[in-house]
Amino acid sequence: MPIMWRSFMPNLPVNSVHIRIDGNDVAVRPGISVAAALLTEGYRSWRTTRGQQQPRGIFCGIGACFDCLVILNGQPNVRACMTTVEPGDEIATQEGTGHV
Ligand code: FES
Questions:
Q1: Ligand 1 center to 12 CA (angstroms)
Q2: Quick one: which of 10, 18, 22, 93 has the fewest CB in 10 Å?
């Protein structure tokens, strides 16, 4: 079973990793991807495209499309589907290139 879907399985053991998403404290299951954490918290899109600010979230889920880019611990353009959450991670939704 892909690791990102474990968070949707209610009968698996519950423990948690504490992270922040857009400044909000969130507890998620250890070992899930950043994309799974975002989906679990109800996000369906978490970045916008550079040109037309179109919403994007997870698409391929295997690191190929780069639709799932997010700002992780201040670093923009991190693929959410390819990155595992770590305790204390600061995840932020990204607009355009993510550079200020
Ligand atoms: S969803 Fe395609 S690279 Fe992450």
A1: 26
A2: 10
Contact 81, 68 (CB under 8 A): yes
Answer yes or no: pTM beyond 0.90.
no
Answer whether 61 contacts ligand 1 (Cβ < 6 A). Answer: yes
Q: Write down the pLDDT at residue 98.
A: 83
Cα(62) to ligand 1 centroid in Å equals: 6
CATH, residue 83: 3.10.20.440
Domain-embedded: residue 98: no
Residue with tokens 């995840």, as numbered in its chain = 91
Q: Which two tokens stand for residue 79?
A: 């693929």
Q: Please check whether residue 32 is in contact with residue 4, taking contact to mean a CB–CB distance below 8 angstroms.
A: yes
State whether the beta carbon of 89 lies less than 6 angstroms from ligand 1.
no
User: Helix or strand or coil: residue 75?
Assistant: strand
